[in-house]
Amino acid sequence: MGENQTIVTEFILLALCLGPRIQVLLFGLFSLFYVLTLLRNGVILGLTSLDCRLHTPMSFFLSHLAIADMAYTCSTVPQMLLNLLSSAKPISFAGCITQTFLFVSFTHTKCLLLGVMSYDRCVAICHPLQYSVIVSWRVGISLVGTSWACGSLLALVHAGLVLRLPFCGPHEINHFCEILSVLKLACADTGLNQLVLFVACMFFLVRPLCLLLGSYTHILATILRIQSAEGYRKALSTCSSHLFVVRLFFGSAIVMSMAPKSRHPEEQQKSLSLFHSFFNPMLNLLIYSLRNAEVKGALRRVLFKESHFLLE
Fold first, then answer.
1. Pick from 37, 184, 270, 312: most CB atoms within 10 A?
2. Which helix (H) or strand (E) covers residue 266, if one does?
3. If you write DSSP's letter for every residue of 145-204 in order, what string do you get?
């Protein structure tokens, strides 16, 4: 192994094995999704900053989810779009490790933020009179800061463990540099990396998922006791849409991170990566924002002011 080991200067990013016309079509379609994702997240950030009625803990959490989604999308999608226009694209070793760090950091931060948002909704629906005391601004800032710090520290640990590995042989990676794809190219024992990855998945995927399911189970139990038909309908509609996001995001993340590799061929892994990178960020904010009456009200007020200004 020592004789075959080489100093890695770059990796080769592979695209989908499709015809050129289909790849161009997908490039246009995914570019549209990419722009829409950035626009929607940008609108959420703008509304939460400008409208004083949205200066609430829930909107604060939503704005940080928007930031995490934008950062995650910008760290992975542009490279994937370029790959659709070319059969293979090189990326430097430093660039690949940086992309791995960003991917891990933003993914786990999003997991924690979704857990925080489920807790916020649980308190708001189940204990509305104590909401301002339990979820104060101090608590909200602490939860968000902890989410970002934990995601970044975990990514730093993963990046440090990857840097100690030697790489030899083919340096081909699907789409972008995520942690599992990079570990496959190491020509040394990755047992420690796999152990840390498994423990991280248990704490940053499984535990937030359990918190989400526990929170929404409590919410549903409270909903069943609501006497008002309108309140029952609104609460149930919100919970069902949020659980849809949870199933999409955590389901694809757990399959990508923890499922046995023999059950998921390379092309299926590529499809999961595309879904996780393009559709999840777009659906997250779409569902969380359009199901939020305060956000919709702020958007209507902004549009009304704009149309009124144009008429004058």
1. 37
2. helix 266-274
3. HHHHHHHHHHHHHHHHHHHTS-B-S--EEESS--HHHHHTTBSS--HHHHHHHHHHHIII
- Which contiguous run of DSSP H or E holds residue 88? strand 88-92
* Residue 130 DSSP class: G
- For 279, residues 6+ apart whose C-beta sits below 8 A from its C-beta are 33, 248
Which H or E element spans position 89?
strand 88-92
Structure tokens at 296: 């919709």
pLDDT at 146 over 90: yes
Give which of 70, 106, 108 is closest to 254, Cα–Cα. Answer: 108
State if pTM tops 0.90: no
Measured distance CA(223)–CA(278) in Å, rounded: 33
The number of beta carbons lying within 10 Å of the beta carbon of residue 303 is 10
Burial of 253 (0-12, 13-18, 19+ CB in 10 A): buried
State pLDDT tens for residues 211-248. Answer: 888 888 887 777 777 666 666 666 666 666 666 666 66
